[in-house]
């Protein structure tokens, strides 16, 4: 995602938390905030520094308000958590508009740098940004409180949605008709997201042009996925290869590139083509609570480049290797989280609920939902709150920065493979039980597959044409209604 560098209109700082708000104890900051609160006439603000290399603009926290911890929680809960519609892109835009453009907690160049740092580390970027701003106001404890305030509304809604889904079951024809229409829309959303992520993952940050080597890393990672080479081997390998390429060390880069396929050829010759299970680590063969925790921790630790990178990993472990979650239920959970004002990564809450339900009933379902969510967000909290200054130093290290560039580019190939699998499943659908006549079954399946393909194409066209924050929400709502006409079985 590219954050625009547009100038904001003159605004007046506002107080959205009522009596909870506490002004900064520093006298100069207190007087500034007090005068802004009691002056009803909008005053032109001073032009913020726009030079990315100005050190003062990166360390100036004089405009960051001081909140009590309850006020800080409510501020992020109310302003961002309850209005987190539209996925990661819309959530980040909302945070930027409110805290950077409108209230000017920090300068725009500083926001750009912070955002760049969080794009290169695991975890959902919108949640990490809320934690960053919470840290500015109340230190590390403030970061934790702000993060919880942003995540909690979506988590509670997803928990309720998971429970209602289990109550509706898979036997309700009206429920299934709407979800059947949502599946090809979800495939379109992930395809569009792949393109969006590629827009910034394969761009050379110094020249702002497409880097062909990063494009090749994405393409060959996709090829490796089709060959069933473990995705973690590909991610690490192309991170190292690009680090060599960036330094024009062609010999070791070529050797590593050739060795991966040479090793694959030897493996096929002696062991045969790898099974689909080879794409997984096998850490969640059963959905026990400890396995769900580990699954969340690993997924959260490997979500480089944004939330969408979590989807392939969870799919491989829960759907392919563990086989305790069906593909169509997995697609349903992504559709549901897109309807709610919630961080996209909370689709894992649904996965944990379904896994717990399979493993031990309703009590385990709620426990599984909580545990996997804690696991997914734990790395994000650690990186955003404990290690931000260290992360900035890492990003400034050219060797490590190049490694992460190669890794983030190769993630595109992983997401693309997952998008293709979900597209195939959403259009093909599951086997239909509509009677004993196999011809009628075949005709019914072909008819529904054709309708699903049309829905996917239309959804993809809408996503490219309209980029508003509510586009996905309206698209899914329309799809749910259309499903009653297209997929309702008598």
Description:
The chain is built from 19 helices and no strands. Helix 7 packs antiparallel against helix 17 and helix 7 crosses helix 18. It starts with 26 loop residues before the first helix and ends with a helix. The protein has 490 residues and is mostly helical. The protein is globular.
Give the biggest beta sheet. none
Strand fraction band? under 5%
Number of helices: 19
Q: Describe the global form.
A: globular
Considering the chains and any ligands shown, give keywords for the structure.
490 residues; mainly alpha; 0% strand; disordered N terminus
Show the helix and strand layout.
Elements: H1 27-38, H2 55-59, H3 69-81, H4 87-102, H5 108-119, H6 125-168, H7 173-201, H8 212-226, H9 231-246, H10 250-271, H11 289-301, H12 310-321, H13 327-339, H14 347-360, H15 362-386, H16 388-396, H17 398-428, H18 438-465, H19 471-486
Short overview:
This protein is an all-alpha fold. Helices cover 70% and strands 0% of the residues. 44% of the residues are buried.
């Amino acid at each position: 995602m590219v954050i625009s560098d547009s100038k904001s209109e003159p605004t007046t700082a506002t107080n959205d938390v009522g009596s909870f708000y506490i002004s900064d104890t520093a006298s100069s900051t207190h007087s500034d905030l007090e005068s802004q609160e009691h002056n009803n006439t909008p005053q032109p603000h001073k032009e913020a520094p726009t030079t990315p290399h100005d050190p003062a603009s990166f360390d100036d926290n004089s405009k960051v308000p001081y909140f009590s911890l309850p006020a800080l929680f409510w501020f992020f809960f109310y302003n961002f958590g309850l209005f987190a519609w539209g996925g990661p892109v819309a959530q980040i835009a909302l945070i930027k508009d409110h805290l950077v453009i409108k209230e000017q907690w920090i300068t725009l160049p500083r926001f750009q740098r912070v955002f760049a740092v969080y794009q290169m580390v695991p975890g959902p970027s919108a949640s990490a940004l809320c934690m960053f701003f919470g840290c500015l106001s109340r230190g590390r404890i403030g970061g934790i409180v702000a993060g919880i305030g942003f995540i909690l509304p979506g988590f509670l809604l997803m928990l309720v949605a998971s429970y209602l889904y289990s109550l509706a079951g898979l036997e309700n024809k009206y429920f299934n008709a709407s979800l059947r229409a949502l599946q090809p829309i979800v495939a379109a959303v992930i395809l569009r997201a792949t393109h969006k992520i590629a827009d910034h993952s394969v761009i050379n940050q110094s020249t702002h042009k497409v880097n062909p080597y990063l494009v090749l890393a994405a393409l060959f990672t996709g090829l490796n996925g089709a060959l069933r080479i473990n995705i973690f081997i590909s991610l690490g390998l192309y991170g190292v290869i690009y680090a060599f390429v960036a330094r024009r060390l062609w010999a070791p880069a070529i050797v590593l590139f050739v060795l991966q396929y040479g090793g694959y050829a030897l493996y096929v010759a002696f062991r045969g083509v790898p099974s689909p299970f080879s794409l997984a680590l096998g850490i969640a063969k059963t959905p026990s609570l400890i396995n769900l925790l580990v699954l969340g921790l690993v997924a959260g630790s490997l979500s480089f480049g944004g939330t969408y990178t979590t989807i392939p990993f969870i799919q491989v472990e829960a759907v392919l290797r563990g086989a305790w979650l069906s593909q169509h239920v997995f697609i349903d959970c992504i559709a549901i989280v897109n309807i709610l004002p919630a961080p996209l990564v909370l689709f894992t809450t649904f996965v944990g609920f379904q896994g717990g339900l399979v493993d031990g009933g309703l009590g385990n379902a709620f426990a599984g939902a909580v545990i996997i969510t804690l696991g997914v967000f734990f790395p994000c909290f650690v990186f955003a709150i404990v290690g931000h200054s260290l992360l900035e130093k890492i990003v400034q290290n050219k060797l490590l920065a190049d490694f992460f560039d190669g890794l983030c580019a190769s993630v595109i190939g992983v997401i693309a493979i997952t998008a293709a699998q979900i597209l195939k499943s959403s259009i093909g659908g599951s086997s239909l039980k509509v009677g004993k006549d196999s011809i009628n079954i075949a005709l019914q399946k072909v008819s529904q597959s054709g309708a699903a393909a049309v829905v996917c194409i239309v959804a993809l066209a809408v996503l490219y044409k309209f980029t508003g924050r509510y586009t996905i929400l309206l698209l899914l709502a329309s799809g749910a209604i259309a499903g009653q006409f297209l997929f309702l079985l008598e």
